[in-house]
Amino acid sequence: MFEKIKSASAELSDRARRAKESLNKVKETSSKSLYAGKEKSQQIIEKHWPTIERVVTDGLLSIAEDKLKDEAFLQLSFEKIYELLPAAVRFVIARDKFISYCMGHRDPILLRLEASRSERELQYKLEVSGEDPHV
């Protein structure tokens, strides 16, 4: 009887060891996949940044300048702008990654926004004055 218990205990111990090894492999694979996913999102954002930046800039153009200095408001704006991105882009870039990327690049975004505002204002003035804006 004691031998059966000892044998069952050894078998159980071996199964527990194999389960732990399998769990560790799953954890390692998951970590690698998660890191690869983060890296892939970053690459996709950077690859398509000119298009994304245009959508972001257009989305922020109507917002008053003083509001854009409020970090919480800006983050909320990026959340809303995320919905304006093409579906294919939203499919591969998670909302939180997009917002994080935009918040990390907010200074260049705001500079681009200011340049776009100035450009539009100049074009409007030229059109109102009757001058050809393409000259």
Gist of the model:
This protein is mainly alpha-helical and 135 residues long. 84% of the residues lie in helices and 0% in strands. It folds into 2 domains: 45 residues; 83 residues, no CATH class.
Report on the architecture of this protein.
This protein has two domains: 1-45; 48-130, no CATH class. The chain contains seven helices and no strands. It is mostly helical. Helix 2 (49-60) crosses helix 4 (71-82) and helix 2 packs across helix 7. The chain starts with a helix and ends in a 6-residue tail after the last helix. It is rod-shaped and about 105 Å long.
Which features characterize this protein?
2 domains, single chain, rod-shaped, 84% helix, 7 helices, 135 residues, mainly alpha
